[in-house]
Amino acid sequence: MVTAALEIDHVSHSFGRVTALDDVSLTVPRGGFTALLGVNGAGKTTLFSLITRLYDNSSGSIRVAGHDLRRQPRQALARLGVVFQSRAMDADLSVRQNLAYHASLHGIGRSNAAARIEAVLAQVGLAEKSGDRISALSGGQQRRAEIARALIHSPDILLLDEATVGLDVKSRAEVLALTRRLIADHGVSALWATHIMDEIQPDDDLVILHQGRVLRQGSAGQIAAGQGLTRAFLDLTGVAAA
Ligand SMILES: Nc1ncnc2c1ncn2[C@@H]1O[C@H](COP(=O)(O)OP(=O)(O)OP(=O)(O)O)[C@@H](O)[C@H]1O
């Protein structure tokens, strides 16, 4: 049996009396693009924080490439690459210096790191910018550098939390296209958290998260059911998405 890239099974999480996630189950298939669609406050960031172990998950289970996050945290986290909403790279260092630092954090030796840095820079189309400081890059290039950082240790799955926030229309499209290309050409999987319907295609696997609960998972085309995703989302949640 092929193991899924990510399996979330009956996971809940509360902040005091606020239930941020309520019995959430979802699967990201290997080599797939799964969109996690929800309006602000749906619970997307909380879910990512549990998957990355920023928060402890005490209910249900989370498995990354078959590794249980509680029982085999090191193996599970090693299979995960994360692009957070906020920047994770040093703006005053060059792209290459940042990548070298993150390679060393992952225990990649110097000679292997040089080859990995070349490879990920080529994958995200930033080979010519490797000596530039992060602060000198455009917003879209900075996002692509973040994706290169997330790929440095050859993860099985990328988690991207609102990866296009703050970008102009062209850069948004580029970052999304890059993510889809990484899946097609390099076999990674992606969980793409967003509140923007336009980023989702009919063939995509879609999870609709609302008020901490998964309302639907399936192909976006099927969920849209001929009436369009905007209408389907409104019918399911009672709320209009962007
Ligand atoms: N640290 C926290 N303390 C208390 N409540 C929190 C905390 N973080 C999130 N919440 C609450 O949990 C719920 C889910 O929030 P979360 O940030 O996960 O949603 P989201 O879908 O990522 O939204 P956004 O896109 O705005 O980040 C919301 O009701 C939020 O107010």
From TrEMBL:
<keyword id="KW-0536">Nodulation</keyword>
<comment type="similarity">
    <text>Belongs to the ABC transporter superfamily.</text>
</comment>
<dbReference type="InterPro" id="IPR027417">
    <property type="entry name" value="P-loop_NTPase"/>
</dbReference>
<dbReference type="InterPro" id="IPR022467">
    <property type="entry name" value="ABC_transprt_ATP-bd_su_PQQ"/>
</dbReference>
<keyword id="KW-0067">ATP-binding</keyword>
<dbReference type="GO" id="GO:0005524">
    <property type="term" value="F:ATP binding"/>
</dbReference>
<dbReference type="InterPro" id="IPR003593">
    <property type="entry name" value="AAA+_ATPase"/>
</dbReference>
<dbReference type="InterPro" id="IPR050763">
    <property type="entry name" value="ABC_transporter_ATP-binding"/>
</dbReference>
<keyword id="KW-0813">Transport</keyword>
<dbReference type="InterPro" id="IPR003439">
    <property type="entry name" value="ABC_transporter-like_ATP-bd"/>
</dbReference>
<feature type="domain" description="ABC transporter">
    <location>
        <begin position="6"/>
        <end position="236"/>
    </location>
</feature>
<protein>
    <submittedName>
        <fullName>ABC transporter ATP-binding protein</fullName>
    </submittedName>
</protein>
<dbReference type="Pfam" id="PF00005">
    <property type="entry name" value="ABC_tran"/>
</dbReference>
<dbReference type="InterPro" id="IPR017871">
    <property type="entry name" value="ABC_transporter-like_CS"/>
</dbReference>
<keyword id="KW-0547">Nucleotide-binding</keyword>
